[in-house]
Amino acid sequence: MITRARCVTWRIPAINPFRTYVQSQSHPISVCEDEVGQQERFLEEYKIRSLLERPIVQYSQKPLPKFSLKQLYRQSEKLTSNTILKNAYDTVEHLLIYNARRLKEFRKLPYLVVLNPSISESYDTYLHTMSSLLRASLYPPHTLKENEEFAEQVLTEFIDVHADTLPSLSKGFSEVSNLLTHQQIKEFLDDHLRERISMRLIAHQHLELTKSINNPDRYVPGGKYNGVIKMLNIPDVIKKNADIVNDITMLKYDQAVKVQIDSNQYQGNYWSQSEPTLEINQELTFPYIEYHLDYILMELFKNSFRAHIENKVDQPVQVTISISRNPLFLELRIRDRGKGIPTKAYKHIFDYSYTTYESGEGEANKTLNVPPGLGGNTVAGMGYGLPLSKQYIEIFNDTLVPNDDDWEVEIPPTKGSLTVQTYNGWGTDVYLKTVGY
Amino acid sequence: MINRSTKLSTRRAAYNAGLILACRYSTNTPITHHSYIHGDFMSSYSKEEIAKHLKNLGPFPTYSNILNPQHFYQNQVLLEYSKKLPHPVSLRQLAGYGNTLTKQKIINSANFVRIEIPIRLAMRIRDLQTLPFGVVNNFHLAQIYESYYHSFNAFRKISKIETIEQNNRFCETVSKLLDDHVFNLSHLMMGALEVSIAQSLPQEDLDKFMSVMLRSRISRRVIAEEHLSLSENYNKNPYDKKPPHYLGEIFNQCNAVDHFNIVANMVKSSMAPSFPEIERLPDLEIDGDLDATFQFMVPHLHYMLHEILRNSFEATIKTHSKKTSKILPPVKVTIVNSDKHVLFRISDQGGGIAHDKLKKIWSFGKSPDQARKSLANFHTIPGLQLYSNLKVTAAGSSIVTTEATDALHASSLSEQTGRKKSTLEHFMARPYELFLGMGLPMCHVYVDYWNGELSMNSLEGYGCDTSLTLSKLGYHSTQTQLDRA
């Protein structure tokens, strides 16, 4: 009853499981080859396919790495050519956790939402960096040279591709606003943007440490500023960002707005219209992450400068710096006379996709918000400027340890904060506060 | 050449007797469910593989011509459609509101199908769109999505049918669609198993999703098949008088005893090769109203009876075959006939099941371990083409190659009772060991669809009684039971 025929041994070809297979010609022998071969091929396909999700599941279940200003300092103080290698390994593992958590959240969104091309572009970016991080985790650097290559290739690429994801994310979520509730979008973006800041900070820290260890002029053994935290001259940072925003307003309005800097170190200068002389002054320095301050100040200046120009206000925007050494904190007040924020808009200033630009203004606001050469730092005008600034300044809030005996300096209970007080018809004050160690 | 996998080839040979030749696996390890457990998970080899293929978790598979970056915007049409409500319909309406078929009735029926199918497809596509991306982006479910979308596009573009010639062309399209979707059911079930393994959806949600998808699928197919049958009938004998309770050609007058016997034989022939040591499989003893007859769709009836009997036979053999090789306790069927219903009680002495497991027998959701076993079995069903090979037909639907379809139909053991080759028959005819764990839950969906009832009681340590109640369609033909969109 059973006809037994000789079957040619079937070798499984090296397969791409996602290729479309072409059915081979059908004749009696190839039927059975096909069937068996097909099952084997399919099992291979299936194995790879079902493996793909597993690093996402596995890494996203690991505890989120804790980091704090204190820890960033410690990495700097302990920096040697040995610790940098350990740090490279940790950096990859930590970034994998952040990456996996984001992928997991994307995968929880409704199917149609992720089919949106802008959202899927962001999601694909995370798949891409997950791949390169997995590869990096297979070959962690063993020498300073390898570490330098790792920093230059993997981390720089990581920072670059994630710098560009915000505009597409912002476009995407505005297009799916009918498919998700306001609350769902807010929850996704709050977590997403906060963890994005953290994961970029981890990458930046390792990059900076690598630069320090490789550069004898920069490297201070046991020093606090080998990493991403530097001692910043705050008036310089303010002026730099005011200049950048003025470059943009010059393009759009052919006008610039003056900034007047005042400080608790220069009592009595506030009412004089002349700018106080601020030469290199040790007293107005504060240790912080410069690109975080850059982002926040630029967003705040964009709002204030535009308000001044559009309302034909001649006065300068006042920036008051207050720095305390013990306890260590930095407070900034950006005070404009730009007629304030209308009550209706005021309620929504920290919402995503809320922007004060009227629709139809078109190209003009693009100029203000996408200054040339600044790439992904230019999210405002997509309505993310203020909420994201708030996320930046609050990034260490969860990680502060108020009662830690290791540190002589008393840590104030107030953490990073950004508050906006508007005087409708007059102007707006923005208060920025952060603590240091 | 020595056959390394004797059992496998015996099964295969018996299964494909006279058709396909015995052959052996070319690798050292036969495919079993153990092949599905990755001991080397996250080894450096798999990390490398994962890193290489991770981009495949993206939303736009290369084979697809639906899932691309434009799809989101093109989907606007569907969002409009999904606001429309399906029109509930009764069998009587469907059969043509009377006992004479006229041209106008056929054309009305065609337009009903033309309008109704895209509305119902749109509802299911929306269901898929609102499930988490990580669930629907599954290899199988994404193909279901693709296939539904093709059908939706094809049907919504058909313009109004006004002549019999147009209807004949329309019938060809509908008919192709029914053929082409032979694989959807298996993709749906494998998709559900993979979701169970990944635990990406709570079991309750998975159950609800599966039931809705399957019920709606039955509903669409019944509507389509009924129209095909009416059209064919009209073309052969226009203006023919029909009997008063005529419901269309897809329904047959069924004698309960006959069908129980037919199905019992099908079950036995699919099980026999797996139990060569058993001389005689359990007998079926039938009592009660032995002359009970009722109208029903034969493939559906067979499928329901098949899954129930198979379950009872299996339990009986497993419980008793170690004690005796001679006579096993019979499976007893009691038929109760009434005006509106026909009731069946199927009693076995298969040892019963524990009460905490009793609730779960109707669930599609499996533990990852169970699901892995079922999936391994699924992958070895001969003739199922598993990899992505979607092509688009003129009808706009996605199909697999004709070779595979032919192989599939040729390997079906059962007679062609339905008008269209039914996937159900394919599943019924699978070799006994290919336990999929989906039979009873599927059976329940069919019973639900026909307004029936299905429950199981157990005397743990003795056996199970399965109770199946079917409504007599002739008496309920004005009920809007085909509205299970």
What can you see in these coordinates?
- Chain A folds into three domains: 52 residues, no CATH class; 153 residues, Up-down Bundle (Butyryl-CoA Dehydrogenase, subunit A, domain 3); 206 residues, Heat Shock Protein 90 (2-Layer Sandwich), CATH 3.30.565.10.
- Chain A is built from 14 helices and seven strands.
- A five-stranded mixed sheet of chain A has the order 2-4-5-7-6, with helices on one face. A two-stranded antiparallel ribbon of chain A has the order 1-3.
- Chain A is globular.
- With 485 residues, chain B is of the alpha+beta class.
- In chain B, strand 8 and strand 9 form a beta hairpin.
- In chain B, helix 6 packs parallel to helix 9, helix 8 packs antiparallel against helix 10 and helix 12 crosses helix 13.
- Chain B starts with 5 loop residues before the first helix and ends in a 14-residue tail after the last strand.
- The N terminus of chain B is likely disordered.
In brief, what are we looking at here?
The complex is a heterodimer of chains A (437) and B (485). Chain A has helices at residues 28-52, 54-61, 69-77, 83-108, 111-115, 117-138, 144-163, 165-175, 182-214, 234-253, 290-310, 343-346, 363-369, 385-393; strands spanning 229-233, 259-263, 285-289, 317-325, 328-336, 417-423, 427-435.
Write the layout of secondary structure elements.
The complex is a heterodimer of chains A (about 425) and B (about 475).
Chain A: H1 28-52, H2 54-61, H3 69-77, H4 83-108, H5 111-115, H6 117-138, H7 144-163, H8 165-175, H9 182-214, E1 229-233, H10 234-253, E2 259-263, E3 285-289, H11 290-310, E4 317-325, E5 328-336, H12 343-346, H13 363-369, H14 385-393, E6 417-423, E7 427-435
Parallel strand pairs in A: 2-4
Antiparallel strand pairs in A: 1-3, 4-5, 5-7, 6-7
Chain B: H1 6-15, H2 44-53, H3 71-74, H4 76-81, H5 91-94, H6 103-130, H7 133-136, H8 139-156, H9 164-180, H10 184-198, H11 203-236, E1 252-255, H12 256-271, E2 284-288, E3 293-296, H13 298-320, E4 331-337, E5 341-347, H14 355-358, H15 368-379, E6 391-392, E7 398-399, H16 402-410, H17 423-428, H18 439-449, E8 453-459, E9 463-471
